[in-house]
Amino acid sequence: MAFRFEFDSANRILLLRVDGRLTDELLGELYKAIRKYSTVTDARAGILDFSSVTEFAVSSEIIRQFAHQEPAMPDARRPRIVVAPQTHAFGLFRMFQLTREDSRPRLTIVHTMDEAFAALGVQSPQFEPLE
Q1: What CATH number does the domain containing 24 carry?
Q2: Closest CA to 86 of 111, 59, 58
Q3: pLDDT tens sequence across 21-55
Q4: What residues make up the domain containing 78?
Q5: How many domains does the chain have?
């Protein structure tokens, strides 16, 4: 499993791309990393791209647990987009969204990156890798 952060400085969008197998443990690592990079970059929006995940070994219980935690990206007024093209992944993230809509009012779950960009109102963002 690999993940990497990219940032579009013009639009101030933090992008997290996840590849391979997603587990409960990795989801915890991602949460911490999102908090770190969203704070460092002062991102105005975030995209979590699960398009390249090959296996979702994530329990619905861990999804509920994370839903009850403080959002990984501070400032709930900033939009967050989850890209989940796989049907079961889309459903898991919708469950996350519905569990605590009050704490994440700007969370949107979509199927494609194009939908994510449209939801944020950006065209052709220029993402650069973050170290």
Answers
A1: 3.30.750.24
A2: 111
A3: 999 999 889 989 999 999 999 999 999 999 999 99
A4: 2-129
A5: 1
